Amino acid sequence: MPNPKGIAHPDPSWAIPFGFGKPPDHPAPILSAGVPTLFWGGMVRLLAEALHLALDEVREATERFVAAERFVVPMGTIEAGTVSAIRFEVAGLVAGRPIISAEHVTRTRADQAPAWPAPPADKGSVHRVTIEGSPSLTLDLSMARGSERGGIIATAMRVVNAIPAVCDAPPGLITALDLPIAPRRRLLRPAENRPE
After folding, report:
1. Cα→Cα distances 151→99, 132, 143, 157, Å
2. Quick one: 93 exposed, middle or buried, by C-beta within 10 A (0-12, 13-18, 19+)?
């Protein structure tokens, strides 16, 4: 979900996959049929496997929101009538009902697509986990300010820490469900080596 002050990406090429600043019928690679499922469907299926749910199907939906006025963001100009926000969802269904879904929303400015889910007012972006049930729970996870590379590091940590378990596993495909949580030793640097 977006930065409330607007997307900070200054590179105009960053807008291309989303179709930002283009007419709503212009191709947007990330919204092309099958692409959301290609990239996020595995997460939905893996969670279903972890919960011992047999999904009937995985279905995707996409939406585009167009700007009502012209405005400028670091990556370029968004003209009125062009795409200023996108949303897609990949959902696993059981008996026609969505049981597990992965949803992604990206805006060029915080006031675009106001009806779509958004981060808390004090957060630039958020990864949200919502569980509907008894009790219903919501977890909003965001990076601390000043840790712009944090998402990349957090993604790599799981992969790097899994190397010993992957090397020890028998040949064949394995998933995160086959790997142990990898507790690490020596997490704290000695005081003399800590940055000021």
Report:
1. 27, 26, 7, 10
2. middle
At 6, is the secondary structure helix, strand, or coil? coil
Count of CB atoms situated within 10 Å of the CB of 110: 19
d(CA 11, CA 23): 19
Helix (H) or strand (E) holding 108, with range, is: none
Per the omega criterion (within 30 degrees of 0), is the bond before 17 cis?
Answer: no
Mind listing the pLDDT tens digit for each residue in 54-99? 999 999 999 999 999 999 998 889 999 999 999 999 999 999 999 9
* Pairing, β 83-94 against β 76-78: unpaired
Of 64, 45, 68, 42, the closest CA to residue 55 belongs to 45
Cα distances from 176 to residues 26, 57, 157, in angstroms, run: 37, 22, 13
Q: Which amino acid, residue 79? A: E
**Residue 61, strand partner residues:** 89
